[in-house]
Structures are given as C-alpha cells and as structure tokens.
Predict the 3D structure of the following.
Amino acid sequence: MRLTAPLVTLPFVLFTACGGGATPPEQLEAATATPALVQEEFTDLSAAGALQVSGEGQDLTLTVGEGEGALTVDVHSAGRTDLSALSGLSVTADLLVWGFESSRSLLLRDEAGGLLYALDAGWSLDAVNEALGAERLRWGDEVATDKDDTWTWSYTSLIVSTDDGELSLLPGDVANITLDGVPWRLAVVAAYAREVRPNAALPGCPVLDDVLSYELLRLETAGEDDVLIRPEGLDPASAGCL
C-alpha cells in the first residue's frame, strides 16, 4: 500500500513520466449508489429497517425496510467492500444527491446512530465526517498534474486521521485503520480537482466537479491492507458532464 505517516517514514510511490513530472495515479471506476426506484429525482432519500444484502462481487443490491417504505439501492463497490456481514442488521440508510447526478452517496448507520458504512461518490466529505463525529478525512496534497484541451487536473491524496496518526492514501489504496479504538476498512476510489483552462472552448455541458471518493466500512476485527486496480474496460470515476 502507498501511504505516508507522520511518525513512521514509509515510501510514497509515484511514477515518473518522460517529461520529468509525476504520472497521475490511476483512479478506480466510480463507486455508485443508485435507488432502484426514484420517487423524487435529485432529492435526498432515507429509510430505516432491516438491511438485506444480495448480489456478489462488486455489484450488490441493498434493501432497507419492508413494504411501501422500503428503499432498494443498487451499489457498485469500486473498493470491493464486503457488505454481507451487515445483512440482517437494523439500519438507517441515507442517499445523498449532488447536482444532476443519478448516482448518490450512501451512508448506513446502526440503531444507535453510529456509522457502519459510507460510500462517498465524490462530494459528501462533510456528511461523512459529521457521521464519524470528527474531521477524520480531508483532501491531501497535490501529487501530480495533467491537462487536456479544456481542463487542468490536480491529482491529490486523501488524508485520514487515525488513532496512530495521519495517513496519506492514493486511489486504489486499501487501509485498515483504527478510529477511537474501532477498526475500519478504508478504500480510496478517486481524488482530483479540475479547473477550466484559460480561453478553453467549453463543451455543451461544461460541468466537471472535483471528486474525492472512497468507501469506509466498520469492522469487527482488523483486516489486511491492499492495492486495487481498475478493471479493464471501465472509465475512471468522474462527476458532471462534458
């Protein structure tokens, strides 16, 4: 895993491009949570009740509650998060919107209101930190830049403040961390900001938002660190339209 910590010096892996600059880290594909039936488009949705998890691999279906009040959510876990252990628990689910995106961020809380799982699709950092009860996650430093005809891209890390100090993680990194004595699995999906280049010819829908995306799962026991690679044929995560 590629990380840095304040008290322990560890190698921060960056690859060098031919021009002498850092090559942008590979982003994972989008982590998405999409309601199977949208009652109100572009509106936050919530439900409470027993959680049922079906599906396998990276594509799962989560159903919270029963009857007319049930909420069914299709999840693509770019971080390869295993949610099977949550099936059967009583939870509250919140689906958080951004702009005109069909996908949403997903927060699952236990009966006491404690966070169980967060899928931040890229724009829900404040909501996740609020659910954690402290500012545990934040944007990291710039690690590489890139540009095309329209945009200048600034690729960053994600910083997480753990019980053992701060870690700086890149997309694809999976870190098993401890927050207030509780083990968590954190998988970073994407981390970059964008600005329009001077005199750029903007496309018909010139909306590209900054993305800081990750998945965070509360564990019973600590797991193992890992590095994930985006599956072949899938585009990197993005928010907005071109």
Remarks:
- The mean pLDDT is 87.
- The longest helix spans residues 125-132.
- DSSP finds one helix and 16 strands in the chain.
